[in-house]
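Notes from the 1:1 (GR / supervisor)

We went over the backlog. Supervisor wanted to see one worked example end to end before approving the batch request, so GR pasted a single chain during the call. The sequence is below; no edits were made to it. Supervisor asked that the structure be written out right there so they could see what the output format looks like.
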Amino acid sequence: MATDTSKLEGFRQRKDVFFKEHAQSPLSDAQKDVFTNLNYFPENPDLKLALEIDSSGEGIGEVITIGTVNGDAKQYTRAGRVHFTVDGQDATLTVFREQTRGHFFVPFRDATAGQETYAVGRYLEPKLLPDGRLSFDLNLAYNPYCAYNTGWSCPIPPFENVLKVPVRAGETVPNLPEDERPAH
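Structure output shown during the call:
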């Protein structure tokens, strides 16, 4: 029987292959030539969570506009908030619902941004569990495509999703030469 760790390792290996070989990879051909793998924090089982969506707060159900790195804007519905702890510190993130596909989306920036992780922030796409909670595995937090190349319209995490606590789970700074990465 496969362990959760091997599932995560397998997921990461498949993602590396996608980035290196797939036509829809965010990497340029020059980046693919030097790419070996994405960088990650070690798996943190304490950040693999199943969380209730708190839909009682202010602004839940509102459609909001979130700016992107290239100056565009995208609309999302504020679905609710999740509350959890990271290394003993309380954290709250707003969960959004995408307008087009209806999937849950959590753009966030934490205390690692700009040093250990991409400066603009990272994303998480939690899944709804049969019991109504969200599978909220921060080990799956990933860099938006704009971390690798210009030309992508990546939402900037709104102020309500900027955490003071460091979230050392998921992807870290892209593993590419400095001159290949966009400046944000």
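Supervisor's comment: Residues 84 and 91 are 5 Å apart (CA to CA).
Batch request approved.
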